[in-house]
Amino acid sequence: MSARRPILQQMCVRTWRLSREIAPARGWWNGDPVASAWHTALSASFPRGEAYFIESLRAFAEDTPAELQAPVAQFIAQEANHSREHIAFNRLVGSAGFDLKKIDARLARFIEDNRSAYRLINLVATCALEHFTAILAHDLLARPEALAGTDPQIAALWQWHAAEEIEHKAVAYDLWRHAAAPLAPRRRYMIRCLVMLKVTRNFLRERWRDTHELMAQQGLDGWRARWALLRYLAGPGGVLRRVGPAWAGWFRPGFHPWDVDDRALIPPHLR
């Protein structure tokens, strides 16, 4: 862990706030109804998801080694800020006609039903989901044109969130490495891989359902809508195709989030 400690320490808790006065349209992501529904579904999942991440790390408060105490505190502060601003954003898109109440209630039930009695499993599930957010953040910041036609305030929200996801992408993982150290290496590896497979199945299934529901609220339903969503996610140049190789890196023995140091993608004004 010591070889990566300098990277862990380079985090900043930014006090960024979204304007509460903006009025996003339904096609707020570059006028694309599919991309707008997908990212609205992601945003709908963030507040409860980030609360779960914070809870998972806090469960190890008494066992956190000294070198991770500051990064864990910064991780928690960043995630709390993300939750606050996405709650605000979700209210704004709600006023634009997206009804997120069913999605939020479903997510609350899902987290409660899938919360493990074992804090180590909750922690590695957090690591797996943090890997998802980090690779999606990398993809977003690597393609600045993706937000070119989006309201500047909304674009700034997603860039800020993505920047901090990159910054803290290894914090939960390093805590997991410390907490799981007593386990045999093969057992650690198997737990990590099996949890990621389950997390991936659940993440894709739930976000697909949420996105399709939001598309239907815009009058986009039936097989054509499902086909458009499938093309957006898995077609040539689709989101999942772009992040697929980085997702697969999780299964490499010896994987660590900082095997790819992508801090250079963070916009200069956020460094």
UniProtKB/TrEMBL annotation:
One of its GO terms (molecular function) is hydrolase activity. Signal peptide: none annotated. The keyword Hydrolase applies. Pfam families: Metal_hydrol (PF10118). Keywords: Hydrolase. InterPro entries: Ferritin-like_SF (IPR009078), UCP07580 (IPR016516). This is Metal-dependent hydrolase. It comes from Novosphingobium ovatum.
